[in-house]
Amino acid sequence: MTSGPLGRAGARGFTLIELLITVAILALLAGGAMSFASLAVQRTQEQELRSALRQIREAIDAYKVAADAGRIAKPSDASGYPPALSALTEGVPDITSAQAKKLYFLRRLPRDPMAYSTLPAEATWGLRSYDSSADEPQPGRDVFDVYSLSPKTGLGGRPYREW
Questions:
Q1: Are 105 and 88 in contact (CB under 8 A)?
Q2: How high is the pLDDT of residue 126?
Q3: What is d(CA 93, CA 71) in angstroms, rounded to the nearest whole number?
Q4: Phi, psi for 72 (deg, rounded to 5)
Q5: Where are the beta strands (DSSP E) in 29-109?
Q6: Percentage of residues in the chain having pLDDT higher than 90
Q7: Number of H helices and number of E strands within the chain?
Q8: pTM of the model
Q9: pLDDT tops 70 at residue 148
Q10: What are the angstrom distances between the C-alpha of 21 and each of 29, 113, 152?
Q11: Most confidently modeled of 21-25, 30-34, 102-106?
Q12: Whole-number mean pLDDT of the chain?
């Protein structure tokens, strides 16, 4: 019987220490990959939130411009902002059109990507009226601004409610 380079005849395989070190390295790599994946998901949701807020705010501003231009009927004591978010998607009559066409400001209302619920898209947003302060937004007779209802904080350290 001849002995191999390790001094044991026909011995092959890994020692228990080698296997433990390999498993530990794989566990570290898997943990790093999982934290990286969750970070990537959060970044994607934050990009969707920025996009949704931009779309809604641009539609609210376009509604206000149309109201100030006299294309939308509004009472004299109204601010000119939409009475509800649904007005942006359902359309409002264009009073300057002879064919009674409607003005639409959004094709569909985006959902708050930070809201994990089965609520309709309109119910996922917090509403601020023209009469309320920016520090303590309150709904009212119109929709001046929207914000996320999520209690979470973004990657930059700012709460989503303040975006």
A1: yes
A2: 94
A3: 8
A4: -125, 135
A5: 92-93, 102-103
A6: 63
A7: 2, 4
A8: 0.78
A9: yes
A10: 12, 41, 38
A11: 102-106
A12: 89
Q: Which residues contact 14 (CB under 8 A, 6 or more apart)?
A: 22
pLDDT of residue 7: 56
Bridge partners (DSSP) listed for residue 92: 103
What is the Cα Rg of the chain in Å?
Answer: 29
Distance CA 82, CA 67 (A): 9
Which two tokens mark 88?
């942006």
One DSSP character per residue, 31-53 reads HHHHHHHHHHHHHHHHHHHHHHH
* pLDDT band with cut points at 50, 70 and 90 for residue 117: confident
Q: Which residue has the tokens 């191999």?
A: 4
Separation of CA 159 from chain center: 12
CA distance 82 to 25: 57
Q: How far apart, in whole angstroms, are the C-alpha atoms of residue 96 and residue 14? A: 83
